[in-house]
Design a protein that fits this description.
The complex is a heterotrimer. Chain A is of the alpha/beta class. Chain A has 18 helices and twelve strands. Chain A has three domains: 210 residues, Rossmann fold (3-Layer(aba) Sandwich), CATH 3.40.50; 85 residues, Ubiquitin-like (UB roll), CATH 3.10.20.600; 99 residues, Up-down Bundle (de novo design (two linked rop proteins)). In chain A, the strands form three sheets. Chain A has a five-stranded mixed beta sheet, with helices on both faces. Chain A has a five-stranded mixed beta sheet with strand order 7-6-12-9-10. A two-stranded antiparallel ribbon of chain A has the order 8-11. By secondary structure, chain B is of the alpha/beta class. Chain B has four domains: 75 residues, Ubiquitin-like (UB roll); 120 residues, Alpha-Beta Plaits, CATH 3.30.70; 198 residues, 3-Layer(aba) Sandwich (Rossmann fold), CATH 3.40.50; 146 residues, Dimethylsulfoxide Reductase, domain 2 (3-Layer(aba) Sandwich), CATH 3.40.228.10. Helices cover 28% and strands 17% of the residues of chain B. Chain B has 22 helices and 26 strands. In chain B, helix 2 packs across helix 3 and helix 11 runs parallel beside helix 14. Chain B starts with 5 loop residues before the first strand and ends with a helix. The relative contact order of chain B is 0.12. Chain C folds into two domains: 82 residues, no CATH class; 84 residues, Glutaredoxin (3-Layer(aba) Sandwich). The longest helix of chain C has 16 residues. In chain C, strand 2 and strand 3 form a beta hairpin. The chains are: A alpha/beta, B alpha/beta, C alpha+beta. Chains in contact: A-B, A-C, B-C. At the A-B interface, helix 15, helix 16 and helix 17 of A face helix 2 of B.
């Protein structure tokens, strides 16, 4: 695995100057790649079967269907809880991000790239800024412009149209017609990791990348391990790695041992929980997670041991989604708050069994009728709670009712 | 190769041909297929938030927001499937989760889209709800009452303020379910603000003057036309037990706040019987006595010692009947241009808003001379703004610098700049030259100035120079402020050759050559210096004119008579008798008819139909040819500090308008426009 | 309940003066250059953040007006955007802003304890400022450093792996450094 790693500096955590990056191989053959032309880059990326490294995992080649774009937008704005990979990339591999942006720009004939970075990432912004400065000094970008746009979008910016709205200086709210245009021109939006992966693919060739991973998930992926593991970390592994292996080799194992393992959020909060039964032999790739109705997402793995109050965790997440909902469409605006109120109640068992049916119904309606994907994201953790931990909820309701009746007597 | 403009789709398995670029909702509405909406308005941008308009499109995974998704070739749309009706139910559930169910005490009840749609599409059961959201009460100024708990976040009001009113005073602050609709500084100053009340689909923004006064189903609706400005907005007057409760626009139109709220002025300061001045004091009198005194005075005078003026709210019938009488009496001094503006009358197009409000959308450059359309005709201004937002529409203004809600080139306050434009020595001349359909708007600020005639003629010359008057396009426009003016001009109520116009009549009265002044609804002239003149006032409100009168004859207002008005576009419209006039007040033409009998020139009209048959109704808008040019020498124009809420007798008597003029005008004046430099220095 | 309302009320009632410093103006020009000339409103968020940094961590009404003029938008539109993003504050904040991440990963590692310790030590609740105007305590959704949970951002520095005791020590040290 070691020789196949793309983001070596995330492990080494060495300096990030241009010089240091060049010794790691960045910017080495950029001119050569550029001289091969946009078609070549597009073909290579298509052959590598690279998939977007967040949320649904769309094929990059499919995003490039139109084969040209005026703007490239890089999304370093979506703060899905549990995803630490974005920040590490910006901090330790800024040159890969910049180089990737340049290459995508060249592939699609874009003239400008905006890197939307969260206002909270002050340090990372500075690192990126100085990296850009160096690159500009050496005139590595040519005519291509890369700007850093300081945003404050929140999770909603995972929705591409909301990100564009925010970039255009409005509230980050999704567009109704799903129009992915920036300033009226075509734009392509990518996550940071996707962008940073591209230079290496072009350098080592699509076959190398395609030889890694599984049938539908090629290459390597960054995973961030947090929560109840001995040593939380960000690590790069081949797609298809087993969850247990990942936790045990890199995370130092679950606190209290695998037997004490309760559940995991496999890729950022919108991917929901997976209980131990499923996790025992779960592999981390797009298709395996889809099989268990989850999603690889951003690769932000949050591990929970048996000391965790899973209902409270979900309630806290529901509150988070309530705060993050933009408020544009009714189901999401009202639904997220409704779900939160219900869960607050249910976490102490206050309620009836019918409340669970109502909750189920509510979640289904929320993801069905919401304007953008956010409604679905907000519903996912609660849906998985109901799917895997319903006995726990029923138990609490039972206990509460018993207790309250005793008080009455 | 031309793009295909017509495509085939199917709605509920019925094949439909439609135009490319339309949204699914538009096509459904064209076909008469009902799709419920709460946050959609055809003249505002799309929000897509209410989720009522969801439809199923075959092959598309999610339900689609029909108001925002354009139709595509071969689309198969379903609006009545179980999935769609389930989605509507659930959207309503979500909306009602936070909406207080206080319909019985809500003014919107009975005409509330949310209520109607809950009835038509809702679940029909109580929602097991958690705690309802509670919002702070908020101020929206003297016209709008806000109950924010009822707000369903459709953002229609925000979009209206932003896009149509152009003042951006209403905003959705905050995020998620804590979003609040608020007015900047707690007040909405726009002249069109009342429209948000109609737009609000949930009773969150309601009419303050109407608050708690009635319910939709108790009132009867009558269609008529507004006279608060020369736009002549089509309105619906709602009446309960002989009292006007409120005024609403007819379908799909905006109306100004004056149009909507000034009607309470109809119940104050009314003249309900004739009065005679005895020893300096006005005493009630009978019609016969009042006529007797007038006739006595008239018979003692030569026709050239009398003058007749008609004011801003006078209908066409009155102007016509009065003209017939004056022709018989051979009185030369008469005028209907109350403000004293210069307007030639030889051809109808000379004094009309020829481009028409619809036509503004086709214009591609605009020069405004001495007018503030925002206050003089707010609805017209909204049309100009709409065109402006469409892009590629340079606007320039000569005259007072004001906030028109769109950006324009201010060419100074002096009309001499028009000469430069005419000669092509001004940058804006290039703009006009490059435009295909340029337009010019001349207003009272120019026409009432000393050089009104010269400015008018220069504007005509500019119109000719830049090819504004063609067979397919007429870009020459006069903006009127008085609802009755065009109608009176149409019947030719202007001085005879040897007669004086308004200014001349007032001068004559002051120096004493004119002994009798007969005012029909004239209140907006300077009354000083008329002490020695015998003033007869005929009208419906005890305002400035009645104050100076020796004899008062009570007339009726626009909602109390069947009458014809012509708006500034030259469109004939009819006002209808909706309520009874007060006391002994009579329709103005009947008063004139009565007067004609006693002065011995009996007119042959007994019914309104007889007048209508004779009215010179024309749709022509031809322009007079060969207008001779007159040079502007000094170029000063009149500056106006007119208060929008106090322009005529009705709104001057209205308590609501009085409150607006205190609260809104002062706020608007405080909000000064500051330049970037000023703020940053 | 109505958080936005009180915030804005405070922002409006403050009759503060605000004008961009020379450095900020240069910065603004720089920011605007990043976007197409016809789209100055793109710079809105960054200029708001700039104004906030210059104005002791919050955006007053005069600051809003100055920003509005800078990007050529109505004040209301600027206010709408400013009230939308939690990163921007429309009410005065303390000289030290303590942001504690309380979402999943940090929550699992005891951010609740951290929050409680801070609240106890400072004597204030979430989103509140101490009476002496020294500290503001904020609950934030994910600081993006899940591997160092629980994460806390004090002013502009990020700290990870804290426990309640360490947190109080940190606050104490900060308070003392100000006194000196």
């Amino acid at each position: 695995m070691k020789k196949n790693r793309i983001f070596t500096n995330i492990i080494d955590q060495g300096p990030v100057t241009l010089k240091a990056a060049q010794t790691r191989g960045d910017w080495g053959t950029t001119q050569e790649i550029l001289s091969k032309g946009s078609q070549w880059i597009q073909d290579q990326v298509a052959q590598s079967d690279l998939r977007e490294r967040s949320h649904g995992g769309e094929y990059v080649a499919k995003k490039w269907e139109k084969r040209e774009a005026a703007y490239i937008v890089i999304n370093a704005c979506s703060n899905e809880p549990g995803s630490g990979t974005e920040k590490y990339l910006l901090r330790y591999e800024p040159h890969k991000v910049i180089e990737g942006a340049l290459l995508i720009g060249a592939a699609l004939g874009a003239h400008t790239c905006y890197i939307c970075i969260r206002g909270e990432y002050l340090q990372e912004r500075e690192i990126l800024e100085s990296a850009l400065e160096e690159v500009r000094e050496k005139n590595l970008l040519g005519q291509f412009q890369i700007y850093i746009h300081e945003g404050a979008g929140g999770t909603l910016c995972g929705e591409e149209t909301a990100l564009l709205e925010s970039l255009e200086g409005r509230k980050a709210m999704p567009r109704v017609n799903g129009d992915r245009k920036l300033y009226g021109c075509s734009a392509v939006i990518h996550g940071v990791e996707t962008v940073a992966t591209i230079p290496e693919i072009l350098r080592r060739g699509a076959p190398w990348f395609a030889s890694l991973g599984t049938l539908h998930s090629k290459g390597t992926k960054l995973f961030s391990l947090s929560g109840h593991v001995e040593t939380p970390c960000v690590v790069e592994e081949e797609m298809g790695v087993s969850l247990k292996e990942l936790i045990e080799t890199h995370g130092g194992g679950v606190k209290g041992g695998w037997g004490f393992f309760l559940a995991v959020i496999p890729g950022g909060s919108s991917t929901g929980f997976l209980p131990k039964e499923i996790c025992n032999d779960l592999c981390l790739d797009f298709e395996s997670l889809e099989r268990v109705s989850s999603c690889l997402g951003t690769g932000g793995i949050v591990v929970m041991d048996k000391s965790t109050d899973i209902v409270r965790v979900t309630a806290r997440l529901a509150q988070f989604y309530q705060q993050e909902s933009c408020g544009k469409c009714t189901p999401c605006r009202v639904g997220t708050g409704w779900v939160f109120q219900l869960l607050e109640r249910l976490s102490v068992g206050q309620g009836e069994k019918e409340d669970l049916d109502q909750l189920q119904d509510l979640l289904q309606r929320m993801s069905e009728t919401s304007l953008c994907a956010f409604g679905g994201w907000a519903a996912a953790p609660v849906v998985s709670l109901l799917r895997y931990f319903q006995p726990e909820l029923e138990h609490r309701i039972h206990m509460y009712n018993v207790a309250s009746k005793r008080v009455k007597v | 190769m031309t793009e295909k403009t017509q495509i085939q789709i199917s709605i509920n398995d019925m094949p439909v041909e439609c135009t490319v670029g339309k949204t699914i909702l538009e096509v459904c509405q064209d076909q008469g297929i009902e799709v419920p909406t709460l946050c959609y308005d055809k003249s505002l941008s799309i929000s897509g938030g209410c989720r009522m308009c969801l439809v199923e499109v075959k092959g598309w995974e999610k339900l689609q927001t029909s108001c925002g998704i354009p139709v595509e070739e071969g689309m198969e749309i379903y609006t009545q499937t179980a999935r769609v009706s389930e989605a509507r139910k659930s959207s309503l559930d979500f909306l009602l989760m936070d909406h207080p169910l206080e319909c019985p005490l809500c003014d919107k009840s009975g005409e509330c889209p949310l209520q109607d749609q809950s009835f038509d599409y809702g679940e029909g059961r109580g929602i097991p709800a958690e705690a309802k959201r509670v919002m702070e009460t908020q101020e929206f100024g003297p016209l709008i009452k806000a109950s924010m708990n009822r707000c369903i976040h459709c953002n229609l009001c925000v979009r209206f303020a932003d896009e149509v009113a152009g003042t951006a005073e209403i905003g959705a602050l905050g995020r998620g379910d804590e979003t609040e609709i608020r007015a900047l500084k707690g007040v909405v100053t726009s002249e069109l603000s009342g429209n948000v009340i109609d737009l609000c689909p949930a009773g969150a923004l309601l009419s303050k003057p109407f608050k708690g006064r009635g319910k939709a189903w108790e009132m009867e609706s009558f269609e008529t036309v507004d006279v608060m400005d020369a736009v002549g907005s089509p309105i619906r007057v709602q009446v309960r037990e002989g009292e006007i409760m409120r005024i609403l626009p007819r379908e799909g139109e905006w109306i100004s706040d004056k149009t909507r709220f000034a009607h309470d002025g109809l119940s104050y300061q009314r003249l309900d019987q004739p009065y005679i001045r005895v020893e300096g004091k006005l005493q009630p009198a009978s019609w016969a006595d009042a006529f007797k005194i007038i006739v006595k005075k008239m018979t003692s005078l030569k026709p050239s010692e009398m003058a007749f003026l008609i004011g801003d709210l006078v209908d066409m019938e009155t102007a016509y009947v009065l003209r017939q009488l004056l022709d018989k009496m051979k009185v030369p001094h008469r005028d209907c241009r109350e403000a004293g503006q210069y307007l030639p009358v030889s051809a109808r197009g000379d004094y009309l808003f020829n481009t028409t409000m619809e036509g503004i959308q086709k214009a591609d450059a605009c020069l405004i001379v001495g007018s503030n359309p925002r206050l003089e005709a707010p609805v017209l201004n909204a049309h100009i703004r709409k065109r402006f937002l469409g892009g590629n529409f340079p606007v320039a203004l000569v005259g007072q610098k004001i906030d028109l809600t769109y950006t324009y080139d201010h060419l100074g306050t002096n009309a001499l700049v028009l000469k430069e434009i005419l000669n092509g020595n001004h940058p804006f001349a290039e703009t006009l030259k490059g435009a295909k359909n340029p337009m010019i708007i001349v207003g009272n600020g120019a026409l009432t100035s000393l050089e009104g005639e010269a400015i008018y003629k220069t504007c005509r010359a500019i119109a000719a120079q830049f090819n504004m008057i063609r067979k397919d396009w007429n870009g020459f426009n006069v903006i009127h402020t008085a609802a009755g003016c065009v109608g009176a001009l149409d019947v030719g109520f202007v001085p005879l050759k040897e007669g004086h116009d308004t200014a001349g009549i007032l001068r004559g009265a002051k120096v004493g050559t004119l002994k009798l002044l007969y005012l029909v609804g004239v209140d907006n002239i300077p009354f000083n210096g008329l002490e020695d003149t015998f003033v007869v006032y005929q009208g419906h409100h005890g305002d400035a004119g009645a104050h100076e009168a020796h004899v008062i004859l009570p007339g009726v207002a626009y909602t109390e008579k069947d009458a014809s008005y012509v708006n500034m576009e030259g469109r004939l419209q009819e006002a209808h008798k909706i309520v009874q006039g007060p006391g002994e007040a009579k329709e103005d033409w009947k008063i004139i008819r009565g007067l004609s009998e006693v002065v011995g020139h009996k007119l042959p009209y007994n019914t309104r139909e007889e007048i209508l048959a004779e009215l010179p109704i024309s749709e022509a808008s031809s322009m007079s040819k060969g207008v001779e040019f007159q040079e502007i020498t000094r170029g000063f124009m009149k500056e106006s500090d007119e208060n929008f809420y106090r322009t005529n007798v009705i709104c001057r008597s209205s308590p609501t308008m009085a409150q607006c003029s205190v609260e809104l005008v002062s706020t608007a004046q405080k909000a000064t426009v500051r330049g970037y430099e000023e703020v940053v220095s | 309940m109505s958080k936005a309302f009180t915030q804005i009320e405070q922002a409006l009632s403050k009759t503060q003066r605000f004008s961009f410093t020379k450095e900020s103006l240069i910065q603004i020009e720089k920011i605007k250059r990043k976007y197409p000339e016809s789209k100055p409103e793109s710079a809105l968020l960054e200029i708001l953040l700039l104004a906030q940094r210059q104005n002791e961590g919050w955006i007053s009404h005069p600051a809003l007006e100055a920003v509005a003029v800078g990007v050529n938008l109505p004040v209301m539109k600027v206010l709408e955007v400013a009230s939308f993003y939690p990163l921007l504050s429309l009410k005065p904040v303390g000289s030290h802003c303590v942001r504690i991440c309380t979402t999943t990963a940090c929550w699992l590692k005891g951010s609740t304890d951290l929050g409680r310790a801070c609240q106890k030590w400072l004597g204030i609740g979430w989103e509140e400022t101490t009476v002496d105007g020294m500290f503001t305590l904020k609950e934030v959704p994910c600081l993006g450093d899940c591997t160092k949970a629980p994460a806390v951002q004090i002013n502009e520095t990020l700290r990870g792996n804290l426990n309640a005791r360490e947190m109080t020590h940190l606050l104490q040290a900060l308070a003392e450094s100000v006194k000196k």
